[in-house]
Amino acid sequence: MEPSSKLQDLIALAEEPSSERRRALLRGVTDLFFTSESEAGPEALPLFDDVLSQLAGEMEVAVRAELSHRMCMVPKAPQGLIRKLAADESLEVSGYVLQNSPVLTDTDLIDVAKVGGQGQLKAISRRMNVSEVVSDVIVARGDDETLGTLVSNPRAQMSRQAQETVVDRALINPDLHLAVVNRASLPPDLLNEMYFVVEANLRAKIMERNSSMDPVALDAALAKGREKMATRDGALPPDYESAEKIVKAMLARGPIGPSTLAGFLRNRETTKFLVALADSAGIDFGTARRILEKRELDALSIICKASGFDRSLFLTFAILILDKDDNAMGKARSYGETYEALPKEAAERTIRFWRMRRQNGDVLAA
After folding, report:
1. Alpha carbon of 61 to those of 58, 94, 102, 109, 142: distances in Å?
2. Contact, 117 vs 91, CB < 8 A?
3. DSSP secondary structure string, 215-236?
4. Domain parsing of the chain, residue ranges
5. Of 245, 255, 290, 312, which residue is most buried, by most CB within 10 angstroms?
6. What is the pLDDT of residues 83-125, one digit of tens each?
């Protein structure tokens, strides 16, 4: 008997009122689809689509989920049915096809992503391939857990704007740090924005990527980052203007030496120290201020190494910055060993990203 004839026979049973009988009918039509998939011509597919879609809509969640599971990987599955399953309110039903079905187009996925819950968005985020236009909708509607799923998928394509949004959210949510830093395709300038908020092991990964970056790619990333860099307002310390005038007057007579820098810090002339350090390193005042106030000694080591300061000067800074009652000497020795191991080239590449802020006239809030 021809597949279409068998299908007509099954359709004739569709008026059967028994729920159990209709479940058997749905499974029978599904089995027939798989049995005759290679035999039935294109004209039979719309018929299968209509019947399966109608029957599926009348079944309970468990039966729809079973159908979704059977159809989710089929390249020639009935498109209307797949769309119906993808739009199902139950994640148990929609999740299979949203994550796996090759039948769904970007338009189909966007339609679901615009109205679906976080479970549906996560399922789409796990697809083997996610286009930029689909990712844009997920980033716009997804919570941080969903963003983590999307960013962790190396096959998910993301626009520059979407990645900027993800980084902005990651700056205030540690749960996103690992996924963002581990994303191999994240633009280097956005990766380096993460430096001051992530833990030491992730900072090491950022430094490692900076070290291996091609100089041409580095310049391109810096140029792109300048386009993105927005002005951030931050209150300057009350003595900033006077400190800047004094430091500029000193610089007019020649470079400010290491002993003078250390003297500023030792005498608690903090603003003078920061203005002078920022000028010496070519970074903005806000970045220098954050490093000092947050005691970011590994970041300070990058500045000192890139600026050509010797280890003893860095250790002097470290001891003066650390609390005397917080094992300052022991910690300084540890940081000194880290300083020795830090490649100058890696420090120079990393600090170029921080210098973008100065080149854009940004003043960062502490």
Report:
1. 10, 10, 22, 21, 25
2. yes
3. HHHHHHHHHHHHHHPPP---PP
4. 1-104, 240-359
5. 290
6. 999 999 999 999 999 999 999 999 999 999 999 999 999 999 9
Compute the 3-state secondary structure of the chain and give helix, strand, coil in percent, each to the nearest 5. Answer: 70, 0, 30
- Give yes or no for a contact between 7 and 41, defined as CB atoms under 8 angstroms apart: no
| Model pLDDT for residues 73-86, shown as the tens digit of each residue | 988 888 888 999 99
pLDDT tens, residue by residue, 39-58: 455 556 666 666 666 666 66
Q: Which residue has the tokens 């002993």?
A: 259
- Tell me how far apart the alpha carbons of residues 45 and 49 are, in angstroms, rounded to a whole number: 6
Name which of 178, 190, 176, 119 is nearest 144 in CA terms.
176
Q: Alpha-carbon distance 11 to 48, whole Å?
A: 10
**pLDDT digit string (tens) for 13-45?**
555 555 566 666 667 667 767 666 544 555 566
Beta bridge partner(s), residue 130: 156
